[in-house]
Amino acid sequence: MEQRFLTCIGCPMGCQLTVEMDKGEVISVSGNTCKRGDIYARKEVTNPTRIVTSTIAVKGGDKARVSCKTASDIPKDKIFAVMKDINHAVCEAPVKIGTVLIPDVAGTGVSVIATRNIAKVS
Amino acid sequence: MKSIDIVIVGGGPAGLAAAVAARKAGCDSILILERDGELGGILNQCIHNGFGLHTFKEELTGPEYAGRFIDQAMELNIDYKLNTMVMDISRDKVVTAMNRTDGMFQIQAKAVILAMGCRERPRGALNIPGYRPAGIFSAGTAQRLVNIEGYMPGREVVILGSGDIGLIMARRMTLEGAKVKVVAELMPYSGGLKRNIVQCLDDYGIPLKLSHTVVDIEGKEHITAVTIAEVGPDRKPIPGTEERYTCDTLLLSCGLIPENELSQSAGVEMSRITSGPVVNESLETNIPGVFACGNVLHVHDLVDYVSEEAARAGQNAVKYVKGELGTVSDSTKGRINLVATDGVRYTVPSTIDPDRMEENLTVRFRVGDVYKDSYVSVYFGDERVQHRKRQILAPGEMEQIIVKKQDLLARPDMDTITIKIEKD
Question: Which segments of chain B have a pLDDT < 50?
Answer without folding.
Answer: none
